[in-house]
Specification:
7 strands; alpha/beta; globular; 239 residues
Length: 239
C-alpha cells in the first residue's frame, strides 16, 4: 500500500535535512509544503528528492490541505504527517504505519513521550490535557495526545472533509474521526526538542494563546455540529 508523507514546513531549512534523511523505507513519496518560508526550505526539500508544494499563506492546516490537494489526482492508500522541526522520532514510523496498512485501524496517532527536558512545554501539556479531556467528556473517546505524527487511510481522510486552516487541524481530525466511527489507535513515540529554528507556537506567548483558542473553538464548533445532528435525528424519529 503506497504511503505518502506530508511535511508542513515554514523556515525549517536547518532542521529539515535531519528529518528527510531519516524518512524510513516504505514511504513511497514525500511532499514538503513550503508554508511561506523566507529561507531555503524549498531548496533543501528538493535536494533530498522531496516534491515541493507551495502554500504562501501561513497556517498549519493550510499547509496540510495544500499537500492533500496535490495528491488528489493520484492519491495514495495511506497519508502520513510529521513536523519538519526534527522533534519526532521517525525511526518509529513503521510501528505507526503497520496497523493502518494492515487494515487494523483507519487512523494511527503518535503519542509523544518526552525523552529530553523541555521537549514539551507546560503550556503544551496543559492544552493537550484540556483538549483531550473535553473530547472524552463530549464524545466518550480517550485520546492521550494531539501529536502531529500520524497516519490515516486516504479513503477515511476524505470522509472527514478536513477544513481547519490553522492550529486546530490535529484536534479537528481526531474529533471527526470519532464522530465518523473510524477505528483509531495510538502508539508511544519518543519526542525531543526541535533540532533547529524557532517555534511558531509553543515557545511564544502569542502563539500559545492563539493555538489554545483555536483548539477550543474547533471543539466547540464540532460539538455544535454533533448536537445539531442529534437533534435532526430525534425530529426525524418523531416525525
Amino acid at each position: 500500500m503506497e504511503t505518502v508523507l506530508v511535511i508542513p514546513a515554514r523556515n525549517e531549512e536547518e532542521a529539515l535535512p535531519g528529518v528527510l534523511a531519516r524518512v524510513p523505507a516504505g514511504i513511497g513519496r514525500v511532499i514538503v509544503v513550503d508554508n511561506g518560508s523566507s529561507d531555503a526550505t524549498a531548496q533543501v526539500a528538493a535536494s533530498f528528492g522531496a516534491a515541493v508544494v507551495y502554500e504562501p499563506v501561513p497556517g498549519y492546516g493550510r499547509a496540510c490541505l495544500a499537500g492533500l490537494a496535490a495528491l488528489r489526482d493520484n492519491p495514495p492508500a495511506v497519508v502520513a504527517f510529521v513536523d519538519a522541526d526534527g522533534s519526532d522520532d521517525l525511526s518509529l514510523f513503521p510501528e505507526l504505519l503497520a496497523p493502518v496498512c494492515a487494515g487494523e485501524v483507519d487512523l494511527m496517532l503518535g503519542r509523544r513521550v518526552p525523552v529530553e527536558d523541555g521537549a514539551l512545554s507546560f503550556q503544551q501539556r496543559f492544552g493537550h490535557l484540556l483538549a483531550t479531556s473535553l473530547i472524552r467528556i463530549f464524545w466518550g473517546h480517550r485520546f492521550r495526545d494531539l501529536g502531529p505524527m500520524r497516519a490515516i487511510r486516504w479513503d477515511a481522510l476524505e470522509r472527514l472533509s478536513m477544513q481547519d486552516r490553522a492550529f486546530g487541524w490535529t484536534v479537528e481530525m481526531q474529533v471527526r474521526a470519532v464522530r465518523h466511527g473510524l477505528k483509531i489507535g495510538e502508539v508511544d513515540v519518543a519526542y525531543r526538542r526541535r533540532k533547529a529554528g524557532i517555534s511558531k507556537i509553543s515557545r511564544t506567548v502569542s502563539g500559545t494563546v492563539q493555538a489554545g483558542c483555536t483548539i477550543l473553538w474547533v471543539i466547540a464548533r464540532e460539538l455544535r455540529v454533533e448536537l445539531a445532528g442529534r437533534k435532526r435525528k430525534r425530529i426525524n424519529r418523531i416525525g
